[in-house]
Amino acid sequence: MEVVWKKWNITGIVQGVGFRYFVKNAASAIGVRGFIRNEDDGSVTIVAGGNEAQLRELLKKIMEGNGWSYIYNIEETNLPPQEYKNFDVEF
Fold this sequence. Notes:
Blueprint: E1 4-13, H1 19-30, E2 33-38, E3 44-50, H2 52-64, E4 70-79, E5 87-90
Parallel strand pairs: 2-5
Antiparallel strand pairs: 1-3, 1-4, 2-3
Helix pairs in contact: 1-2
């Protein structure tokens, strides 16, 4: 299946609540590659690569949250192919 790459900028209650590691674990379990990073403005950036079904599943998990996070908005951008082998937390 074709690998699709997306960039998501997520605003809400997403820093200081374990959100990055929640997303990392979910992405790794689903087989999505890429990274998640906190931004200075309080948002997080996710670059994610996988097939359409994998990305939909990850986005569903992100929207469900970890019990402490709350999503206000997700901005999505299509990306060209990336070279990530795993899903990591970047600092």
